[in-house]
Amino acid sequence: MTPRTRTVFRELDGIVLLDKPQGMSSNQALQRARHLFRAAKAGHTGSLDPLATGLLPLCFGEATKLAGGLLGARKAYRTVAVLGRTTDTDDADGATLRERAVPALGAQAVEDALVPLRGRIRQRPPIYSALKQGGEPLYAKARRGEAIEVAEREVEVHRLECLALEHGRVELEIECGSGTYVRSLVRDLGEALGCGAHVAVLRRLWVDPFRAPAMVTLDALRALAEREGRDAVDVHLLPLDAGLVAWPRLQLDAAAARRFAQGQRFRLPDAQGPVEADIVVLGADARALGFGRLDKTMMLRPQRLFRWAALSAAAG
After folding, report:
1. Which residues fall in a coiled-coil region (predicted)?
2. Of 13, 154, 187, 264, which sees the most CB atoms within 10 A?
């Protein structure tokens, strides 16, 4: 029996646009990709359901400091809703709660049902979700059979279109803000149509700022590593800057950049930029030093510094 080779992890900074396979949790996909890249530090930017496929941006090394911002980014999905059956998970993986006859539906009936689901809406998340209640994920409570009351919350649906309607199945494309559950949209659509519905297929198409993502699968990464060597997978590693394009930026001169890199807060009376918001702070050489926050008095406060910012400060 050949002994397993222990993975030696390395310091690696960047972003991988993974096409998550169906039947795997986001964390499982992250850990497999992390081992393929041998990244010492890794995180993802918001979970996809095990049933779902599609874009899961993975952050390695210093790029993990972007994860919070990407978590709140706009996203797009394509889903297939099956009418006539509701489940406890609001998708095909769950146990059946109720089956109902599907009425004869035309495109206009579906459109009429979609109208209240667009814009800023109140939505009740699924009980099988990673949202926490009392410090514990809802899905853990649901699996124990506990009665769960999930409060509605406001989300934003920027675009919701019916692409196809046939044989009791509705294909939808959704563009939405952070915190929106496609499973809840489908559940609410089914109730509006009077027959119930659940998600049968779900694919994430893009996540801002990656609107035309060149995704790679775990199988493709594994095959590339076996064929050309372990370092060959690095061709799919995007630079950290690729994830920064959506953030507002503020460039400092050399002296101010040094103070920022040392973690000092200071006032910039001539600064122009959004206040009370995270901004990317650049050094005099236009390299990103980290994230800061500029308040109404133009006080700049360092929030999260990249590793090389400290090196830059020491060198200065």
Report:
1. none
2. 187
